[in-house]
Write a structure and sequence with these properties.
Layout (H helix, E strand, L loop, with lengths): L1 E7 L3 E8 L6 E11 L2 E8 L7 E5 L4 H15 L6 E6 L10 E2 L2 H9 L8 H14 L5 E5 L9 H4 L5 H4 L10 H15 L7 E7 L3 E7 L2 E5 L22 H9 L3 H10 L2 H6 L4 H9 L3 H25 L4 E5 H6 L1 H8 L11 H5 L19 E4 L4 H21 L3 E9 L2 E5 H8 L7 E4 L6 E10 L4 E12 L3 E3 L2 H7 L5 E2 L10 E5 L2 E5 L2 E4 L2 E4 L1 H7 L6 E6 L6 E10 L6 E5 H6 L5 E7 L2 H13 L9
Parallel strand pairs: 1-6, 6-8, 9-12, 12-13, 14-27, 15-18, 19-23, 20-23, 24-26
Antiparallel strand pairs: 1-2, 2-3, 3-4, 4-5, 7-8, 9-10, 10-11, 14-28, 15-19, 16-17, 17-18, 17-21, 21-22, 24-27, 25-26, 25-28
Helix pairs in contact: 1-3, 10-11, 11-13, 15-20
């Protein structure tokens, strides 16, 4: 399948042809940028990664002119034969968690989101509408910047404003999701470990800029909010400002809200501070002694550092700080400015490695010194390739669903709070020679409920008679619901079993003594699965799926459900009591498992071919 990808941004048009049957998927890359005085710069590269980047001036004055010129450019280079189109769309609201084939309903919803992304969605809509007229017989798919961030918890996406405002859709959505998703996978590939084992802060620094906290594979917070205006200082966007400035400027300068908003989008950021929105020009001016440009660099770097510090705290630690985007990839001085202040966290940048970065393909060099506790990685982002992957799997999924049902019914059990103890913990709580005694068997043959219980004590309250499950484990693990954490007065992370790094301390009290231990988690929803069922469903250990429980008003879809495959497992989904209450389940039921092909297969392909594919995005 050959796919044409459009990424129509606020200041440029990127496009590319991807042949998904080739090992080197990207066969053509093009970009129109720097529209000025009726002209623009056209960057292009033919013949995949082996091609030599070239550029020339084109007599194209606007984004619309550039889009209309694409068919001629593709024909010129012999790439005008393809099967589908993929469009980057900035804002999908809270509706789209995956790519969607474009029809009237999808197009209408994208247009409804325009007030949330007034610079971006109109550009995306322009590309879509023109493409549908230029290639009316080809399927076209929208891939949303906001989709990756649908895992952000409510405490992070909720604004503290009146409920009537929130009911209109006012909340944090986040952007650059395709880029941040790719960066997380690319970092994991470079470090030869699963992305679910890493805490990554992804810094997409370009004309548009954002930072994302990727906690074990999932976005848990990001600097852009309801619109792409919030967060970092950008080329022409202000980033964070006091919302009180609207009333102030109305009183003092007589400006209306719409004028202020557009000035924050188009006349702020680096442009307002230094006179130019291009970081390359800002750095040259600063080096020549321009005080405004020097201030702009300091403000820009300070805002990035502030968000990195906040997200390190939000995740309870950080393993990797990753840089991408035009500034992140190409500005060694900005990377140094950002990293210099984090020695207190154990980050030590190697300046020689930092200065030596010359990204030719899609390398991911590490820039930290040998004694650094945090890794620093820089890589070209790969938004267009990820969009092509999403398009392919969206179309494949539709074809699969048309040919046969792609779902299975599996048993779902409610898992109440419980504890797995180590031998050392058993001795401390019940006595040196004590052995746990079996009360009853559980569905999973290797586990059983013990007669013993303990109290779990937090700074605010206590959970009494919490059941212990046997046999003992190497680490003590306490699994509770989110509601239980409020009783205890502790903030426990959502984690897969066994992932206990940086978990809060809690006190356990048994008949023979007390023990203070870490290991308090809210267990990530998961499905125990036998190898036979996994093979039948086309799944493997570590995949994520969606599960639909019930229908109608109380029907609940549980996304991002972890698959755990083991010879001794009996296929069964486990949810906690909060999730059961949300789905109106008292004890057990059956759920419809739906394979999330976009999530699972796209990630698998990226991991296999990560060294060979990508696109530079600014």
């Amino acid at each position: 399948m050959k796919i044409l990808v459009f990424n129509a941004g606020s200041s440029s048009l990127k496009f590319g042809i991807f042949d998904m049957a080739r090992e080197d998927h990207r066969i053509f890359k093009g970009e129109f940028e720097r529209f000025k005085n009726g002209k623009c710069t056209f960057h292009y590269c033919t013949d995949g990664l082996q091609g030599k980047p070239q550029q020339r001036q084109e007599a194209l004055a606007t984004l619309e002119d550039a889009i209309k010129a694409v068919p001629a450019k593709l024909k010129e280079f012999g790439y005008d034969n393809f099967d589908a189109l993929g469009h980057r769309v900035a804002h999908g609201g809270d509706r789209f968690h995956d790519a969607a084939t474009i029809d009237y309903e999808v197009l209408s919803f994208i247009e409804q989101c325009t007030p949330l992304a007034p610079l971006h969605n109109p550009a995306n809509m322009l590309a879509i509408n023109l493409s549908r007229s230029l290639w009316p017989d080809l399927p076209q798919v929208a891939v949303f910047d906001t989709a990756f961030h649908h895992t952000i918890p409510d405490r992070a996406f909720t604004y503290a404003v009146p409920k009537a405002w929130r009911d209109t859709g006012l909340r944090r959505y986040g952007f650059h999701g395709t880029s941040h998703k790719y960066v997380g996978l690319r970092v994991a590939k470079a470090l030869h470990c699963p992305v679910t084992d890493l805490q990554i802060i992804s810094c997409h620094l370009g004309n548009g800029a954002s930072i994302c906290a990727i906690n074990r594979g999932f976005s848990i917070d990001t600097s852009m909010g309801m619109t792409p205006l919030e967060g970092l200082v950008m080329g022409t966007r202000s980033g964070d400002v006091d919302p009180g400035l609207f009333a102030y400027l109305s009183r003092e300068l007589g400006l209306d809200a719409q004028t202020i908003e557009m000035q924050l989008y188009t006349a702020s950021g680096l442009k307002a501070l230094s006179g130019t929105e291009d970081m390359r020009d800002v750095e040259k001016m600063a080096a020549n002694g321009n005080a405004d440009a020097q201030l702009a660099l300091n403000v820009y770097a300070y805002r990035v550092r502030k968000y990195i510090g906040a997200y390190a705290a939000a995740m309870g630690g950080v393993d990797v700080i990753a840089f991408t985007g035009g500034v992140g990839e190409n500005s060694a001085s900005m990377r140094r400015r950002v990293c210099d202040k984090f020695e207190f966290l154990g980050l030590h940048l190697d300046e020689d490695l930092n200065q030596a970065v010359r990204l030719q393909g899609y390398e991911a060099p590490q820039l930290q010194s040998f004694d650094s506790g945090i890794k620093v990685i820089v890589t070209q982002t790969c938004e267009q390739y990820m969009i092509a992957q999403e398009v392919k799997h969206s179309l494949d999924r539709q074809q699969t669903q048309q040919s046969h049902s792609n779902s299975w019914n599996i048993p779902v059990a409610v898992s109440a709070r419980h504890i797995h103890l180590s031998d050392k913990a058993v001795a401390a709580l019940f006595g040196a020679d004590h052995q746990l005694t079996k009360a009853r068997s559980l569905t999973q043959p290797e586990s059983w409920a013990a007669n013993e219980t303990v109290a779990v004590i937090g700074p605010k309250g206590t959970l009494g008679k919490v059941r212990i499950l046997g046999p003992t484990r190497d680490q003590t693990q306490i699994e509770v619901s989110k509601t239980d954490t409020f009783t205890l007065g502790l903030d426990a992370p959502v984690r897969p079993s066994g992932k206990l790094e940086h978990t809060p301390l809690v006190k356990l009290r048994g008949p023979a003594g007390e023990l203070e231990t870490n290991g308090l988690i809210i267990a990530a929803r998961h499905i125990h699965m036998s190898p036979q069922d996994a093979e039948k469903m086309g799944l493997k250990d570590g995949d994520y799926v969606d599960v639909q429980l019930g229908n109608g008003e109380r029907g609940v879809a549980f996304s991002n459900t972890l698959i755990r495959v083991k010879d001794s497992y009996v296929t069964e989904m486990h949810i906690d009591t909060d999730e059961a209450n949300a789905a109106n389940i008292a004890f057990a039921t059956k759920g419809q498992l739906v394979i999330n092909e976009t999530q699972a297969k796209a990630d698998i392909v990226v991991r296999k071919n990560m060294e060979l594919n990508g696109n530079n995005a600014v």
